[in-house]
Amino acid sequence: MYKSIILIVSLYKFVILDNYVELKEHLFKKLVFYKLKGTIILSKEGINGTISGNNINIYSIIAWLRIDARLININYNISFYNKHPFSKNQVKLKKEIVTLGVQNINPNKQYGNYVNPENWNDLIKKQNILLLDIRNIYEIALGSFKGAINLKIKKFSDFTKYVQNFKKKKIAIFCTGGIRCEKAYSYMLNIGFKKVYQLKGGIIEYLRLIPKLKSKWYGECFVFDSRIFIKY
User: Fold this and answer.
1) Is 221 designated active site?
2) Catalytic one among 91, 148, 175, 223?
3) Domain with 62 in it
4) Are 152 and 52 contained in the same domain?
5) Is 84 within a domain?
6) Along the chain (232 residues), what's the average pLDDT of each consecutive run of 10 residues?
7) What is the DSSP string of 62-122?
8) Which contiguous run of DSSP H or E holds residue 147?
9) Per the domain annotation, does 187 fall within a domain?
């Protein structure tokens, strides 16, 4: 393990934040106070971000966020590195916390069918399950689950153009930390998919919990920071 451990936390929550504009200043001050680096996105549909810092300060910011009843069940994944993978801290306001560009979907209400990493291997080995990697093509180039379909999309919003072809199938979807799956799941239900499963916690949680010898993953997992990728 690293001599100087930096925790990297990817966090998100789909929840109505009517006061997200006002939250920006308070949240930024907390990032500065706790000496955290990275980016957090706020919008009316929720919160999403990846930040880094020492153990105490990372768990302190999570505890602070949970004081808000709307964020008490905020989702987060933790990984480790020997230095900050980010050069600065910032809080951004956006229309969506992850951009799909589709109206009338609500991951806050349309969610579920999560499969824990411990049960993922059993699910994806079933012959009637179609495994979809919903990440971008350059992410998949570094690694994926064996047998997963590469939609060859360049950005997440392209997902809607290609997924229609699989409407009659039983689908298992996965992404890096889970947030894209949440929105994809809601969209797929909206357009008529009947059976969709999603990997709870995403690839990051799978790599953390599943021993390499039992893993169905090959290669590395692309991440959006200076690490470029994580692996076993």
Assistant:
1) no
2) 175
3) 6-93
4) no
5) yes
6) 78 98 98 98 98 98 98 95 95 97 90 96 96 98 97 95 92 97 96 96 96 97 91 80
7) HHHHHHSGGGTT-EEEEEEESS-S-S-EEEEE-S-SS----SS--TTTS---EE-HHHHHH
8) none
9) yes
